[in-house]
Design a protein that fits this description.
The chain is built from three helices and five strands; from the N terminus they run E-H-E-E-H-E-H-E. It is an alpha+beta fold and 89 residues long.
Length: 89
């Protein structure tokens, strides 16, 4: 399963937003890959996520090895409710 999101948070996906994102993805029982501008990392790795240096306006793509829509919806809800990103359709 794959979904893309536009980063809308002023600070991008750094520090606190990254920590909250990793906390959310770590609760999901699946491997989740985070891709941005040709680079990728494990979405459950705080160092990997911060190291991507994702800024406002960039599009991220999450790829999950589990096809359960409800699991991706948990991440989507987290990103939207915390004003980190919005889904790209």
């Amino acid at each position: 399963m794959k979904k893309s999101f536009l980063i809308i948070n002023q600070t991008g996906l750094h520090a606190r937003p990254a920590a909250n994102f990793v906390r959310c993805t770590s609760s999901i029982p699946a491997h989740i890959l985070l891709e941005c501008d040709g680079h990728e990392t494990d979405a459950k790795s705080i160092m990997g996520v911060i190291g991507m240096q994702i800024v406002k306006g960039q599009i991220i793509t999450l790829t999950m090895d589990n096809d359960e829509e409800r699991l991706m919806k948990i991440i989507e809800n987290h990103l939207v409710e915390n004003q980190i990103a919005k889904e790209v359709k």
